[in-house]
Amino acid sequence: MTTSLPSTAGLLITAVALAAPATTTPAASASVTDAPGHVQVRKALDQAVADGGVPGMVAEVRDRRGRWFGSAGVADTRTGRERRPHERFRIGSATKPFTATVVLQLAAEGRLSLDDTVDRWLPGLVEGNGNDGGTITVRHLLNHTSGIFNYGNDEKEFAKFSGPAWLEHRYDTYTPGQLVRIGLRNPRSFEVPGDGFVYSNTGYILAGMIVEKVTGRTLADEISRRIVRPLGLTGTYLPAEETGIRGPHPRHYSTLFATGTDAEVHDVTDQSATVGWAAGGMVSTVGDLHRFTGALLRGTLLPPAQQREMFTMVRTGITMPDGTWKDTWIPGSTYGTGVFSWELSCGARVWGVGGAITGGFSFAMGTRDAERMVATTMNIDTYGRYNSLDMVKAVFQAEFCPSGSRAGSR
User: Fold this and answer.
1) Does 14 map to a domain?
2) Helices 96-108 & 286-298 angle (0-180, nearest 10)
3) Residue 374 lies in a domain
4) What CATH number has the domain bearing residue 225?
5) Which residues, in sequence order, are CB contacts of 208 under 8 Å at separation 6+?
6) Which residue, 399, 400, 355, 398, is CA-closest to 378?
């Protein structure tokens, strides 16, 4: 289920059978085509496995020298099978830029406007608890400034998708309308649409519903027709009600939000993707995420006007009644429509996509011109002493932050 734990800042979706103890944890290995080195990235992968309890983590770097792939740990703790470059995995909220791209393409075609209200396409759906679909626009949905409550933070639903209860509910299916209603039964995050940023998966479910209303086709079909096939993505798709992952894939693991160092680890590979759908239900590969994110950064999927919309960034927080600023998402980030930027500790800023799901974290980010990019994924989500988001950040800093320097690629 999607949620906004402080440590993940709203990136999470959900995903169990008990996992056997790890058999081996190999050190980072590299598959090099043209690009050499990346010693610091290797170290970050090794540390995530050796010290952070990550079963397996990979990173693929692409720059002018070529492509470099490195891995540490395993894809399957029972068999000790190593991570591989072409594995498919659940990408959580990295689904959002796919949904946003489809919406922006429809805007470019004149079939909708980002200034359209939700009521224009889904009349009467968004109401109650201070919500008014006549004042919330498509743009508000895409850049998380709608104020609509994130359905994953609903107390009743989250109780079913954390801890042992998850074992009973992992195959529960939801319609988009059900997810929206869960969000709407909670108070708004702030009063006036556009007056703040609070990450809301509910907004992206509504965006997906609008895509289907405008086109008369499923969101999965539109993503395939407009993005997957044109870019030649070979391992990327939005599942329907299937609970497994097609093709080669790592096992996905989770402590189900337990934060103790001795928390039990569960195999969470099979799960219902309907819980995330347009907000976080997709499957992809590191290579596909590279190609897709590179296309977003270079502007090859959108006309100039819509490209500017995608990268019109907002600060990720709200102004409190006393005038002070409160971060509501990842500190140091700004958000566009499905894409975001992230300032690293050395001052370097990277741009791209990212997401979490119960069972893993996946990010693809790079310089604004896409000349240097890193895609990384781990097959566990952890929220205690070793936080998955911190370990992801360590990989980017290993590549984009020269040792001892505050200069970086911006």
Assistant:
1) no
2) 40
3) yes
4) 3.40.710.10
5) 99, 176, 219, 277, 278, 279
6) 355
Lowest mean pLDDT of 27-36, 74-83, 146-155, 234-243, name the range.
27-36
Give the whole-angstrom CA distance, residue 322 versus residue 336: 27
Give the phi and the psi of residue 45 in degrees, each rounded to 5.
Answer: -65, -45
Note the helical H segments in 56-160. 96-108, 118-121, 138-142, 155-160
Position 203: which residue type?
A: G
Taking alpha carbons only, the member of 190, 159, 282 closest to residue 228 is 282
Nearest of 156, 124, 150 to residue 204 by alpha carbon: 150
pLDDT tens by residue, 260-293: 878 899 999 999 999 999 999 999 999 999 999 9
Pairing between β-strand 380-381 and β-strand 325-327 as defined by DSSP bridges? unpaired
Domain count, the chain: 1
pLDDT tens for 156-165 read 999 988 888 9
Residue count (the chain): 410
Helices and strands (H, E) in the chain, number of each type: 14, 18
Question: Could you give the angle at the alpha carbon of 3 between the alpha carbons of 249 and 196, nearest 5°?
Answer: 125
How far is it, in rounded angstroms, from Cα 7 to Cα 51?
A: 18
- Say if 135 falls within a structural domain: yes
Residue 74: strand pairing partners: 82
How far from 70 is each of 31, 42, 62, 375, CA to CA, in Å?
Answer: 6, 7, 12, 11
* Opening angle at CA 209, ends 204 and 215, nearest 5: 125
Full domain range(s) for residue 135: 29-400
The pLDDT of residue 234 is: 97
Write the DSSP string, 338-351. Answer: S-EEEE-TTS-EEE
In a domain, 407, yes or no: no
DSSP 118: H
What are the structure tokens assigned to 329, written together?
């998402």
